[in-house]
Amino acid sequence: MGAMTATVSTADQGGLVVVDGSSPSAPAHDPRLKSLTTVLADTTAKIQQGRSAGARVWPTGFDALDTALAGGLRSGELILMGGPQGLGKTTMALQMLRRAIVTGTRPAIFFSYEHDAHAVLERLIAIEAADLGGSEALTLNTIRQVFESRHTRATSLEEQFANTRGGAHAVRALARYSDRLHIHASSGMHTGIDQIRAAVQAVAEEHGQAPFVLVDYLQKVPVPGAGLGDEERITHVVEQLKDIALTVESPVLAIVAAEKASLVAGKRMRVHDLRGSSALAYEADVVFILNDKYDIVARHHLMYHLDMAERFRQWVVLTIEKNRGGIDKVELEFQKRFEQGRFEREGRIVQEQLIEERIFVD
Ligand SMILES: Nc1ncnc2c1ncn2[C@@H]1O[C@H](COP(=O)(O)OP(=O)(O)OP(=O)(O)O)[C@@H](O)[C@H]1O
């Protein structure tokens, strides 16, 4: 926009002064402010270019979840995933991220505060192997052993996995998207919102397309400024992550930790149990909460079918606690395959009655 000139009267001098519009005191052009005419023109331009005029949909790869979400996650959304420790939040989020890059040409970036890049590689090999070989494919433990073995004479990763079930295939499958998947070895000391924003922008520039963003996990993102309380820090981070999602027009999926007090076995975790929950629930577009099915299934399902107890332990219930753009309070279940670093992708709607807290101890 060119420099503009305007005249304004100043009451104290009783005269007119000329204000140069390019000076710092003039109102700057706000790129966020658009007339509906501009919105219509932008939309028409997208249609003419053969692009989608609405939000882009990124399937999660979990069939029952994609059905509930009318296709999947959407660009511009902040999605939170919470649940008790060790229930598979990283596992499920990584499967979603992998799905986002295998379908299409878009990049992805994983801000990993918990696991190093090699651990992520091991998990991805497991997911790829199971994608073809199902439950017969090699386990995470086998993958670890293969990496730990020495003097194997293998000259490539593919050769090193040659004698495993699906390992060589998995390594080849990874090569299809390895240049589009960026793993950020994030640190609770140094990787704040500014670093996240810069890395997302660098990946977007490198690929010419905005990446799917995964943050594991939100409360680890440091906020400068001593003396801020937990709630203020988390509010800042969640607002900024939402802003990144809107700015780059991608989904941002963040794992969230729970309040310590709510981490009680047998108690169903809800959105209000997330650490810093009021801001989290307010800013997020979609909130998933994972719970162990065994912990939250009503007592009568256990009493009359004792063999069911063991089976329930194999399943995780994912509740869509919030969904700004669609239906919520949906209860889905997915079977754990943690020895292979994954969940079964089909899933289904929970049929049993669920409760908030177990009232007996076995
Ligand atoms: N090699 C393995 N074999 C079997 N199970 C494993 C193996 N490695 C990890 N697991 C289990 O898989 C589960 C899911 O791990 P994941 O890291 O996804 O959980 P999480 O919910 O993100 O946990 P946290 O809150 O600790 O980060 C955990 O219970 C873990 O103990």
Task: Reconstruct the topology from this structure.
Elements: E1 5-10, E2 15-20, H1 36-48, E3 57-58, H2 63-68, E4 73-74, E5 78-82, H3 89-102, E6 108-112, H4 117-133, H5 140-148, H6 157-160, H7 167-175, E7 181-185, H8 193-207, E8 212-216, H9 230-248, E9 252-256, H10 277-283, E10 286-292, H11 293-296, H12 299-303, H13 306-312, E11 315-323, E12 330-337, E13 342-343, E14 348-349
Parallel strand pairs: 5-9, 5-10, 6-7, 6-8, 8-9
Antiparallel strand pairs: 1-2, 3-4, 10-11, 11-12, 12-13, 12-14
Helix pairs in contact: 4-7, 8-9, 9-10
Bound molecules: adenosine-5'-triphosphate (ATP).
Q: Can you walk me through this structure?
A:
This is DnaB-like helicase C terminal domain-containing protein. One of its GO terms (molecular function) is DNA helicase activity. One of its GO terms (cellular component) is cytosol. Strand 8 (212-216), helix 9 and strand 9 (252-256) form a beta-alpha-beta unit. The strands form 3 sheets. Strands 5, 6, 7, 8, 9, 10, 11, 12, 13 and 14 form a 10-stranded mixed beta sheet that branches. A two-stranded antiparallel sheet has the order 1-2. Helix 4 (117-133) crosses helix 7 (167-175), helix 8 (193-207) packs parallel to helix 9 (230-248) and helix 9 (230-248) runs parallel beside helix 10. It has a domain at 56-113 and 186-349: 3-Layer(aba) Sandwich (Rossmann fold), CATH 3.40.50.300. It is globular. The chain is an alpha/beta fold. It has 13 helices and 14 strands. The structure holds adenosine-5'-triphosphate.
